[in-house]
What we know:
Elements: E1 6-8, H1 14-25, E2 30-34, H2 40-46, E3 50-53, H3 59-72, E4 78-81, H4 95-122, E5 130-134, H5 147-167, E6 172-178, H6 189-196, H7 208-219, E7 227-230
Parallel strand pairs: 1-2, 1-4, 2-3, 4-5, 5-6, 6-7
Amino acid sequence: MSAAPILITGGAQRLGRHCAERLVDDGHPVIVSYRRERDELTALRERGIVTLQADFATEAGIVDFLARLKAETRALRAIVHNASDWAPDSTGDEAGANFERLFRIHMLAPYLINLHGRELLEACGEPQRDIVHLTDHVVQKGSKKHAAYAATKAGLANLTLSFAAMYAPSIQVNAIAPALIMLNEGDSDAYVEKAKAKSVMEMVPGPGVIYQSLRYLLDNRYVTGITLPVDGGRHLR
């Protein structure tokens, strides 16, 4: 019997892509969702990673994705909810629509995928099955410019507790809460120094630390309902 794949939502770039590639390196089949076609997907497909387009900004898009996921595989080893949108707040007429979109991406999509994906996880022949939510350090303090983002990521953090209780003991549900992990192209030296100074580790660690954290959760049979902070000790500042 072939191994069941691991699903990573938003797996075409940055953290999601890095984790997808590392999982393949470790011998796991992988499925990733992506929002739009991009050059990076070619490299993922060449490595045997299955790519499924998904529009999590609408409920219809989420339901459509679930149907195609179930047509693609009969079992999953794990679900990693990485899809995200770092959208700033708006005070204009679109403020409500912006919040609703972030709610669907950060909360409704994981909620529905967890509900409908339970049967896929339980069909896995492995002794351990996992759901991992990628939340954010900002959940702990809020945000002056990204209140909708912070609130919906906080909702995802709470879903971790609910699903961990609902799905124990057969499925473990945990979260990873990163702070600054990677830089964006064009970030100024001043921004980089300011960002580094927010944590006692004073560094931009790169995506490897997220894979290490994911690997810990995927390999540990006695952990559920936790949020693993990966923030360089920001709470110590």
